[in-house]
Amino acid sequence: MKDKLQLMIPGPTPVPERALLAMAKHPIGHRSKAFSDTIAAVTAGLRWLHQTQNDVFILSASGTGAMEAGLVNVLSPGDRVLCGVNGKFGERWADMADVFGLQCERIESEWGTPYSVEAFAEKLQADTARAIKAVILTHSETSSGVQNDVEAIAKLAQEHGEALVIVDAVTSLGAASVPMDEWGLDIVASGSQKGYMMPPGLGFVAVSDRAMAATQTSTLPKYYWSFAMAKKNLSKNTTPFTPAVNLIYALQETLTMMQEEGLEAIFARHALLRDATRAGARALGLGLLAPDSHPSSAVTAIEAPAGINADDIRSLVMKKFDIALAAGQNQLKGKIFRIGHLGFICDRDILTTFAALESALREVGYEGFSPGAGVTAAARVLAG
Question: Rounded distance, CA 264 to CA 275, Å?
């Protein structure tokens, strides 16, 4: 049936009708009083979502743009940084640091394995000269479904005293708790097409006072990304450059929806959807890439049965049921598929996905489960 696509990927995610209708409004002047009132409202909502008193800047960009803005505003060529790498996005931030001439030390773990907190502790505690200027972390590693222990590593950075904590929260913000002030995070970057329940196009950067102070000595070039200009304009409830006006209408609506649900309820819903997904996969005899100790609240990476290409499973689910699952990336291509369960996702979406998945598994010749096992296991978790 046409126009029945169901997105079960870690972004873009489904967009609620309230947000779509908000986007359909006629744009207004971005220097008008009415739009300044909108910026004031969404800024308050963003601070609530980030659990912070700090400024949160809105960029017309992707999450990658938000991360780049974080790096170039607080660092200088030659600065020593530590970067956690246990998936595609950790690799991206390390590559970006290399491009900007930073002295980037990768702290690597296998894909599907969480960061070694001990490895970060060793590096930070050995740095008696306080030469490490930043620790760059990915909270929810989208490529593998691992949720890293950012809180523990941020505490180590605070004890170090010099290193800023720069966090990719692109798939965790709005799906898991990221209490910026409580954890002592300095830069938190995210993107609109994930837990915010919006189309792609907006990036967000929450910036601590320590990070703003670091902008005074940073020598990496920036203009469009300038936090100094962003802060000056935000104090007047405006933006330095023309923003994506209609996306900000949608943002205002989805932040309102989140506030209606409440932070704790949001996090509990995502945890339940995660647990149901993992239970459903196990009931089908399928392996999970991320350990039970560090599962992402946003996405679950599932191993294909032996001898079966994961992309064949995905292709059938899309062709027969119009349900989009995400592929494995890099060395995991064809070995895993990923189910996104963040944003505007509910119990029905999980159960529908597992019913379709069971059908596809049968069609590719996998018989390592009893019919209905995945749906039953997921439903049992969802029922509490």
Answer: 16
